[in-house]
Amino acid sequence: MRWHRIPASLSKGGTLSFVRDQPSDSAADSSGASSALSIPLGSVITIQRGYAVRSRAPEDSCSPDEPGAVRLLWLKHLGRDGSIAEADEGADVWRTDVPSRYHLQAGDLLLSEIVTGRPKAARVEQSDLPAAAVGSILVLRPTVTVSAEHARLILALLRSEAVAGLARERFGRARIASKDLMDLMLPAPDEALSTALEDLDAASQQMSRWSADASAVANLIFDTDVSLDSARRSVIQVGQLSRLRAEAAAQLDDPSYIIRTRMPYPVALRWRELEARLSTSDPGPAYDAVLEAAEVLLGYSALIAAALAHHAGVELASVAALRRRLSGGPGGPGLGEWVAILQEISGAKKRRGLSSDHPLHDFGALLSRQEAEAARRRLSARRNDKAHGRTLDAVTLPSALEEAHQDLSILMAGSLFLADLHLIHVSSVTWDAFRENAAVTFRRLVGDHPVVPTTTMEYPSNKIETGSLYLADRDRRLHLLRPFLTCEICETCRAWSTFHVDKVGGELTQKSLEHGHSYPYKADATILQAAGLL
Question: 125-137 pLDDT, tens per residue?
Answer without folding.
Answer: 999 999 999 988 9
